[in-house]
Design goal:
It is a single chain. This protein has a single domain, classed as Rossmann fold, CATH 3.40.50. The longest helix has 17 residues. The mean pLDDT is 90. The N and C termini lie far apart (36 Å). With 270 residues, it is of the alpha/beta class. The protein is 41% helix and 20% strand. Adenosine-5'-triphosphate binds next to α2 and α10.
């Protein structure tokens, strides 16, 4: 791996300049696919808007862009003289690959794909923001490393990562790889978010399909907190379908969202 994988220097410099419009940049990653990174990113962004914060949300998943579906946003985003203008959806300034290309696949391969996250950062004309939440694609490849290095240049006060994990053994093994990468790259991890932690039962009580304590083990190993635990909740799907406030779709989700926002805001220094 080269020192600067992915995007060329001038793109990385422009990406850093544009990121500087946000007081706080939060990367949401997992390494693993399908564990709920996009959902958690959307819930966090919606809740921060409720707190009166100016929030941007960026989805840079070339192949599996999901945020605009979760938020019910429709494109296209427009390119102006200063770059691509994010669309305002539910109070969130949203930039998503799917708003650029709709449901068509984006033909990004090789070098283009490796530099895509940083290139999108460089091309997006963000307004001044309190928080920019970046929903990362799965994996731990060059596109992610390149983006981490650009954001890391902001220093600890302005940049942190949230790592989403489900308690399943397979997911934890993959998430561990991302945590090791973040440690090697000296990126501050704000904490873990445990998703699909339990399933609430209709008559009361819960089921824990992946057992207990797995994510706590990861937290202990890497010396980081578990900021929130989200249930696997069918009301999420219902709220997405109905276009409702998915971050307040059930008491359990709402509680976890509040824990997450409290953890993020306090660890980013208010
Ligand atoms: N706690 C949950 N309760 C109910 N549904 C959930 C929960 N977490 C995730 N989902 C659903 O599971 C699907 C996958 O979640 P999501 O797209 O957020 O995962 P991801 O990690 O971003 O995936 P990818 O790796 O493809 O980017 C989505 O339909 C999402 O709404
Ligand atoms: Mg996703």
């Amino acid at each position: 791996m080269s020192d600067s994988p992915g995007a060329p220097d001038f793109i990385r410099e422009e990406a850093a300049r544009r990121l500087s419009r946000a007081e706080n940049v939060i990367f949401v990653g997992a390494g693993k696919g399908g564990v709920g990174k996009s959902l958690i990113s959307a819930l966090l962004a919606l809740a921060l808007v409720d707190e009166g914060k100016r929030v941007g949300l960026m989805d840079v998943d070339v192949h599996g862009s999901a945020l605009s579906h979760i938020l019910g946003a429709s494109g296209p985003v427009v390119a102006g003289r200063k770059g691509i203008e994010p669309t305002l959806t539910r109070g969130i300034h949203l930039m998503s690959v799917s708003l650029l290309v709709g449901d068509s696949p984006l033909p990004a391969l090789g070098e283009v794909e490796r530099s895509l996250v940083v290139t999108m950062m460089a091309l997006t004309n963000w307004p001044s923001l309190d928080y920019l939440v970046v929903d990362l694609p799965p994996g731990t490849g060059d596109e992610i490393i390149s983006a981490l290095r650009v954001a890391r240049g902001r220093g600890e006060a302005g940049f942190g990562a949230l790592v989403v994990a489900t308690p399943s053994l397979v997911a934890r093994r993959v998430v561990r790889r991302l945590l090791s990468l973040l440690r090697d790259e000296r990126v501050r991890v704000l904490g873990l978010v445990e998703n699909m932690s339990y399933v609430p039962c209709p008559g009361g009580g819960v089921v824990k399909p992946f057992g207990e304590g797995g994510v706590d083990g990861l937290a202990e190993e890497f010396g980081i907190p578990v900021l929130a635990r989200f249930p696997m909740d069918p009301r999420v799907e219902e709220a997405i379908e109905a276009g409702g406030p998915v971050h307040r779709c059930s008491e359990e989700i709402s509680r976890a969202v509040d824990d997450l926002v409290r953890g993020v805001v306090s660890r980013m220094g208010g």
